[in-house]
Amino acid sequence: MNAHHPKAPAAGLPMPAGYWLLATRWGGRELSLLLPRRALTVNLLLLLLLALVATAALGLGSVRLGPAEVWHALWGEGPALHQLVVRELRLQRVLAGIATGAAFALSGCLMQTLARNRLATPGIIGIDNAATAFAVASVVGTGIALAPPAMSLVGATTATVLAFGLAGGSGTRGYRFIIAGLGIGAIAGAVTQLMLSRVAIDLANAAFPWTVGSLNGRSPGATLLLGVGLVVGLALSLRLARTLQLVQLADPVSIGLGVSLRRVRRQGLALSVLLTGLAVAVAGPVGLVALLGPEIARLLCRHRGVPLLASALAGALIMLLADLLGRLLLAPLEIPVGIVTAVAGSPYLLWMLLHPSSRSQP
């Protein structure tokens, strides 16, 4: 839900507009909770759309299945061919798409909130490219023994530390941090291309999907690790939700309300780096999802809060829909999901750059 969680009104006070009140008794005590109607409705709508697109992704392809056949196959019923197609060939890809999209978008929402700038996504400030460079280094055999997921986390952390160091005292605020990240991303991208140009063609082909973003043939182990990291990251993010909402205020105001800005930014950035690194380890750099997911969530929620859960759901929906389009548009040829999201998201990014008011704080 949206990150705005006001306390329930005391007895006799009027109900605030736009909220539902849930009340119950537990152990002789009256417990109540206010739920924002629009945020709850948006999250349920996004969840429903995600289920519909996931069903379509499981059913569409060279072997086409209806929704009923898909659900029967998921439960281990129906013809063996249907079960093979759904459970063995397509389910892992769908799960990878949901997890990576949610992780990228949640990471972007955290980064934008901390920087109070909608351009400050992990992809824009170089975290994606650095994580990709380190992951490719492990794939092409540069003498580094760590697995791609671990290496991508190292790369994401390295990019963040360098961006902070180059930004000096400005931290995540202002365009110095973004410009430093752009430079780091450009260097990381050049290093990736250099590594690919100096290895055998077979190794370069194996590492190529990491450079453009793809959900084809993803490792179940990496997807499982991302799923665990996503659950933990989402839980910790929701725990920070009220504080993140206060961080959007001016620094003196936030400090006056008792917020430890250094601690909150450190925790938020750590979660963003973790989610980005794990997502890149599965799908490669699909960073524009981190830009589009939070934007769609804010547009739908129409609230000044931090739409963490809505961002994650919107990101998962974007990633899954982009992968489905990439599989179907030029079938039997496949367009990597990173290219589809780049084509869809680049015009919006250009619009943001040409309209300074759109870059204001989330």
UniProtKB/TrEMBL annotation:
Topological relation to the membrane, as annotated: Multi-pass membrane protein
Localization: Cell membrane
Domain of life: Bacteria
GO MF assignments: transmembrane transporter activity
Membrane spanning residue stretches: 39-61, 94-115, 127-147, 153-170, 177-201, 221-241, 269-293, 305-325, 337-354
Signal peptide positions on this chain: none
GO biological processes: siderophore-iron import into cell
Location, primary (coarse class): membrane
One GO cellular component, as annotated: plasma membrane
Keywords: Cell membrane, Membrane, Transmembrane, Transmembrane helix, Transport
Protein's UniProt keywords contain Transcription: no
Recorded family membership: Belongs to the binding-protein-dependent transport system permease family. FecCD subfamily.
Protein name according to UniProt: Iron ABC transporter permease
Organism: Zobellella endophytica
